Amino acid sequence: MIRVAIDGPAGVGKSSTSRALASYFDFAYLDTGAMYRACAWWCLHQGIDLDAGDLDEQAVTETVGDFFTGGHFEISVDPGDPKVMADGTDISEAIRSSEVSSRVSAVSGIIPVRHVLIAAQRAYIERERTEESYSHGAGIVAEGRDITTVVAPEAEVRVLLTAREEVRQARRTGQAVKGTGADNVAARDKADSQVTSFLKAGDGVTTLDNSDLTFEQTLDSLISLVRDAI
Ligand code: C5P
What separation in Å is there between the alpha carbon of 32 and the centre of ligand 1? Predict the structure, then answer.
């Protein structure tokens, strides 16, 4: 079983390339950013104020705990259809809104919240490793900010995907034009890097700068790294 961990800042193309990589090898795919986004969406949905200054960390932690232990949260690890659900409602699109993008760092910055999500993410990876009944049992691609360093430092392939800030902002702005909410990547990276260090590769982690690479070239580089590990 191959575990592929991919970290990187906002707008680097982690989700699209990780998903394509998982599809290529018929591996499972876990978007951990979608899990943090779903938590922010759920808190807002429960009427919790996530704006700086008014943040009730304990209320957020309890609400996120209930989201997971109460069985409200579901995520599909099928790279062909990676849905996020809350109480049976598909929130995959809602979690990409600018309302969520601008508040997700407030939620992911709360350490007890991270502990809940890290445990859940490890459980998904472990489940793929042990359950033979899953069709994607040969491997999993998990992507986020702390996968190579905290969630799965023992992964067979660990990559830090990076790109220059102006390139990343341009990619996100392009996505916003196509329908995803506006996103200030620099502000989010600044807030996120207070809690997780994803701007520098950890020990043994391969850095791949895709500023001047096409999507296909980035994917090819990732495919080679996985092939080397198989
Ligand atoms: O990957 P994406 O940009 O969708 O992530 C949304 C947010 O989730 C990040 O800005 C960060 O606050 C949080 N996150 C995190 N740790 C991860 C993945 C995402 O803190 N492993």
Answer: 7
Residue 134, judged by CB atoms within 10 A of its CB (0-12, 13-18, 19+), counts as middle
Nearest protein CA to atom 3 of ligand 1, as residue: 10
ipTM: 0.99
* Ranges of each domain in the chain: 2-225
Per residue in 71-99, pLDDT tens? Answer: 999 999 999 999 999 999 999 999 999 99
Question: Which CA distances in Å does 108 have to 52, 104, 210?
Answer: 13, 6, 26
Domain 2-225: assigned CATH number: 3.40.50.300
- Cβ atoms within 10 Å, residue 128: 22
Could you tell me which residues are beta bridge partners of residue 74? 85
